[in-house]
Amino acid sequence: MVLDQPFLFHSICSIYLNCGLLDVRWMCQKVEAAYQQDKVAINAAEGFIRQLIGWREYVRGLYWLLMPEYKTRNFLNAKRPLPDYYWHGDTKMRCMQQAISHTMTHAYSHHIQRLMVTGNFALLAGLDVTEVTDWYLAVYADAYEWVELPNTLGMALFADDGVLASKPYAASGAYINRMSNYCQHCHYKVKDSTGNDACPFNVLYWDFLARNEAKLGSNARMQLAYKNWHNKEAEQQQALRAKASEYLLKLEQL
Ligand SMILES: Cc1cc2nc3c(=O)[nH]c(=O)nc-3n(C[C@H](O)[C@H](O)[C@H](O)COP(=O)(O)OP(=O)(O)OC[C@H]3O[C@@H](n4cnc5c(N)ncnc54)[C@H](O)[C@@H]3O)c2cc1C
Ligand code: SF4
Predict the structure, then answer these.
(1) With contact defined as beta carbons under 8 Å apart, do 86 and 100 qualify?
(2) 142-197 pLDDT, tens digit each
(3) Which residue ranges make up each domain of the chain?
(4) Where do the H-state alpha helices sit in 67-172?
(5) Does 119 sit in the ligand 2 pocket, CB within 6 Å?
(6) Ligand 2 contacts CB of residue 200 (under 6 A)
């Protein structure tokens, strides 16, 4: 993720695929042919084809298999109202400002922004599953419920208790810092978790683990995260949770 770069190397083809102007099989065959003719590297061709016949067809299958019950799931009991900045991007969190403003300008943001910025924030803050899925359905030009819902409710929010993904895609600010240059341009301090300007993703990450331990603590893929949490001193845990309560109370002002 790069400041002010909404598209990078993404194909922007989901809009055309989903409304039927492009055919998935035809696209995969074109990409395979480009690889056979040495026009693209195997990792690029494989990665692209995998997104289409792997992820896209996979989420389509899940939707038709599990609806309409799937839409009612809320495994982590997430009920907090969606902050207003999801609609205008006016927040001090640079990563959120970027992902939301790209969304509002282009009706598009790429996968990592959807999953690891706006989706991750919704997961960590426990935002209401229906409000979040309604938002994703409203703001993207490629949004159709059969593809939007499993990606949001399942992949981003883990509200299906691991039907789509084997663990929640929960991450602290360190992940966003590694994957972007946003944190260098942010009001918050990505290395801080309890101070005045502590990165909200750090603060909410630890609180997310602590408050959901009864539901996630036995997940084999969460063991390292919980080990890190339990390795903290009791005082540090209390400070993190106190900071999280403060941030959750003023979620609209972050
Ligand atoms: C919370 C959330 C909501 C999403 N909502 C939608 C949505 O409403 N509609 C939608 O088409 N995609 C959705 N996605 C999946 C993915 O983010 C978009 O397909 C992708 O960003 C579209 O941009 P692109 O065409 O430039 O994709 P590229 O990065 O160039 O990928 C190529 C193609 O692979 C397919 N693809 C890749 N990942 C996925 C995936 N997880 N699910 C389905 N197809 C995938 C898409 O057809 C995409 O066009 C969502 C992802 C998340 C995390
Ligand atoms: S410091 Fe935190 S809030 Fe700011 S851009 Fe980085 S991850 Fe986002």
Answers:
(1) yes
(2) 999 999 999 999 999 999 999 999 999 999 999 999 999 999 999 999 999 999 99
(3) 14-66, 74-254
(4) 85-88, 94-106, 111-112, 120-125, 129-139, 145-149
(5) no
(6) yes
Number of C-beta neighbours around residue 87 at 10 A: 14
Class of 74-254 per CATH?
A: mainly alpha
- pLDDT at residue 111 in the model: 97
Please give the mean pLDDT across all residues of the chain.
97
Q: Can you tell me which atom of ligand 1 is nearest the CA of 60?
A: 43
> How remote is the CA of residue 175 from the centroid of ligand 2, in Å?
10
Distance 94 CA to ligand 2 centre (A): 6
Residue 193 burial by CB count (10 A; 0-12/13-18/19+): exposed, middle or buried?
Answer: buried
95 lines ligand 2 (CB under 6 A): yes
Ligand nearest to the CA of 187: 2
**Per-residue tokens: 92:** 């001090």
Amino acid 215: pLDDT: 97
Distance CA 172, CA 39 (A): 38
As a whole-number percent, the residues of the chain with pLDDT over 90 amount to: 100
Write the pLDDT tens digit of every residue in 85-119.
Answer: 999 999 999 999 999 999 999 999 999 999 999 99
Q: Are 222 and 128 in contact (CB under 8 A)?
A: no
Q: Helices (H) and strands (E) in the chain — how many of each?
A: 15, 0
